[in-house]
Each structure stands twice: as structure tokens, then as C-alpha cells.
Write a structure and sequence with these properties.
Elements lengths: L1 E7 L4 H15 L7 H7 L4 E7 L2 E12 L2 E9 L8 H15 L4 E7 L3 H9 L3 E7 L5 E8 L7
Parallel strand pairs: 4-5
Antiparallel strand pairs: 1-2, 2-3, 3-4, 5-7, 6-7
């Protein structure tokens, strides 16, 4: 049975190690040496894990970009667990969390080669708002979802 957990505004060394392991498994590359520092510098960091027992099998990381805009920054599911609805559940839980915390928009960027993520985002109501090239000349698709919430402040 898959369980889900969210941590907000703090991240442990164990969480960072789990993210590094999952990133390597999902994308077959290592995170940058600056990854722990980058995580700790994010404003209102939100980290969510999907776990099978004690094993982290999926993750979603985001942070507050502006007062009412949340940036869904990183996410992935271990290849052995893909196709089981974990990415969709992580996204649903992240969007619910964003709504509960009065964010108005969620932004994300996806490399064009990650088609399943693009399709999931489109199915979940994200709009394409632009594209650009990353330093390696991969097309990056910029997406935004408007949440049905009106900030109280």
C-alpha cells in the first residue's frame, strides 16, 4: 500500500538523500552538487513523498514563487512503480495542498521529451503558456493551472 506524506518549510538530510536517489532512478542522472543548498533556499518549500513501506517511490517538490503563485518544481516516480497512478495522486495532493494554502496559480515547466507528464498536466487542467529552450537545447513547455480559490489577504 502506498502512503503519502508532506513536509512544509523544512527538509531533513534524509529527505534530501531520498530525493537524490529517486531523481537518479527516474532520470538516470545525478542532481547537481548544489541541490541541498537550492532546496534549503526555496521560499515555503513543500516536499511530498509517496512511500511503499519505508521506501520512497515517488516525490513532488515545489515552492512559493510569488505571494499567490506556487511553482511545482520537481517530481518523479521510480521506474518500478510507474503506471500505477502514483504521479497522478501526487499531483492531486499537491493541487489540494495549494488550494488549502490559498495559492491562485500553479506553474510548472516540463521538458517536451517527458510526454507522460505533459499529458497528465493537460488532463488535470494545466494550460500551455509558453516554451523556451534549456541550456542543452531541450524544449521546455511552460504550464499554468488556475486554482478555484480567492485569497483572503
Amino acid at each position: 500500500m502506498i502512503s503519502y506524506s508532506i513536509s512544509y518549510e523544512s527538509i531533513t538530510d534524509a529527505d534530501i538523500a531520498s530525493l537524490e536517489e529517486l531523481f537518479a532512478a527516474c532520470f538516470r542522472q545525478s542532481v547537481s552538487k548544489n541541490f541541498p543548498r537550492l532546496l534549503r533556499e526555496k521560499h515555503h518549500l513543500m516536499v511530498m513523498f509517496a512511500k511503499d513501506g519505508d521506501k520512497a517511490v515517488g516525490y513532488k517538490v515545489g515552492y512559493s514563487q510569488h505571494h499567490h503563485t506556487f511553482l511545482s518544481w520537481l517530481g518523479g516516480v521510480h521506474p518500478e512503480y510507474q503506471g500505477k497512478g502514483i504521479a497522478k495522486e501526487l499531483l492531486h495532493r499537491q493541487l489540494k495542498w495549494c488550494t488549502e494554502h490559498e495559492y491562485v496559480h500553479v506553474l510548472t515547466e516540463v521538458r517536451n521529451i517527458w510526454r507522460p507528464q505533459l499529458i497528465l498536466n493537460l488532463k488535470e487542467g494545466f494550460d500551455v503558456i509558453g516554451t523556451h529552450l534549456d541550456p542543452e537545447d531541450h524544449t521546455i513547455v511552460c504550464m499554468r493551472k488556475a486554482l478555484r480559490v480567492h485569497p483572503t489577504h
